[in-house]
Amino acid sequence: MTARVLVTGGAGYIGSVVVDQLLDRGFHVVVLDDLSTGHRGAVAKDASFVEGNVGDRALIEALLERERVDAIMHLAAFALVPESVAQPEKYRANNVTAARVLLDAAVRANVRRFVFSSSCAVYGHPATIPISEDTPQAPVNPYGETKREFERVLSEYGLRRGLAAVSLRYFNAAGATERRGEDHDPETHLIPNVLAVALGKHRAVDVFGTDYPTPDGTAVRDYIHVADIADAHVRALDVSLVNARLFAGALAAVVAWRTRNVFLTIGVGMGLLWILQAMW
Ligand SMILES: NC(=O)c1ccc[n+]([C@@H]2O[C@H](COP(=O)([O-])OP(=O)(O)OC[C@H]3O[C@@H](n4cnc5c(N)ncnc54)[C@H](O)[C@@H]3O)[C@@H](O)[C@H]2O)c1
Fold first, then answer.
1. What CATH number does the domain containing 108 carry?
2. Residue 181 is part of a domain; what is its CATH number?
3. C-beta of residue 39 within 8 angstroms of C-beta of residue 65
4. Residue 95: which of 55, 40, 36 has the closest Cα?
5. In the chain, at which end, N or C, are there fewer CB atoms within 10 A of the end residue's CB?
6. Are residues 211 and 243 both part of a single domain?
């Protein structure tokens, strides 16, 4: 039987690539997206599409009842840091409150696996580099706080309600596939803005600070290709979340870790000028 997956935010930049990879690997895919920042045309034809909000309880319950999905990949969220500072309640309402409606419905519908697109914004300004999953969480903006808060809710559910969950923490998604690319309005991410200059759509790219103690003097960021992020989402469906622990040589207890937090990185940070040179 084909495994069935619900992808929230599947009309967005990363979600649309996740949908393509799931379909390519033989999954039945249902997309739920309210098109607040996504595009209907970015959803593969072979996926079922439902236009709606993850916070709409009646819609979600009916959808889960009808579709009987085995897993949910939750990418729907607002994700602009400056906007989250200006409108923290908007971010809390969508990224935590609405997401909880989805999670409640998932537990009641007996969905077994939940993959959450979290963010490295949960770390804030880490005291030590490189970051690992154990690096203390200390978000420095409302966006990061909403991601940390939903991770916490998810792991509590995992323990209490038997839902196996994986939270993927990553920094800047970048790149495109042959079928999909990045199309935000406003576009705040570096690479599409550099390309917009190359295409003559913008006059220049702003560089904020050139005297950082980094090789090129600009802020170093961790970029990861969107296809690799999508691949990690699909692989998270297969991560084993149950571990047996041996005590005093005998199997005295079986401990189930129901949640995993996974940090995604290519391990190389890049400065802005380095990226400009590489793309020119
Ligand atoms: N882009 C990055 O660099 C990056 C980095 C780390 C984490 N993330 C996370 O990955 C996810 C996807 O990011 P993206 O860059 O593809 O963003 P995006 O804006 O392109 O995609 C988000 C999608 O979710 C939809 N959506 C938002 N709220 C919704 C709701 N309540 N109900 C239904 N649909 C809703 C939007 O219409 C959009 O299609 C987000 O959760 C984001 O926080 C992104």
1. 3.40.50.720
2. 3.90.25.10
3. no
4. 55
5. N
6. no
Q: Could you tell me if 19 and 63 lie in one domain?
A: yes
Pair (208, 244) in one structural domain: no
Per-residue pLDDT tens over the stretch 91-146: 999 999 999 999 999 999 999 899 999 999 999 998 888 888 889 999 999 999 99
pTM (two decimals): 0.93
Domain of residue 192 covers 177-221+268-279
What is the 101 CA–ligand 1 centroid distance (Å)? 17
CA angle centred on 39, ends 36 and 44, rounded to 5°:
135
| DSSP letter string, 102-144 | HHHHHHHTT--EEEEE--GGGT-S-SSSS--TTSPP---SHHH
Structural domain total, the chain: 2
DSSP label at 62?
Answer: H
Same-domain pairing of 216 and 227: no
Please check whether residues 67 and 92 belong to one and the same domain.
Answer: yes
Instruction: Name the stretches of the chain with pLDDT < 50.
Output: 243-256
Whether residue 165 is found in the same domain as residue 52: yes
Same structural domain for residues 184 and 82? no
pLDDT above 90 coverage of the chain, percent: 62
Alpha carbon 190 to its chain centroid, in Å, reads: 18
Residues 103 and 160 in one domain: yes
pLDDT tens-digit profile of 259-271? 778 888 877 788 8
* From 33, 123, 189, 193, mutation site for ligand 1 pocket: most ligand atoms within 8 A of C-beta: 33
| Ligand 1 first shell, C-beta below 6 A | 8-9, 11-15, 32-38, 53-55, 75-77, 79, 94, 98, 117, 119, 170, 172-173, 184
Contact call for residues 154 and 148 (beta carbons, < 8 A): no
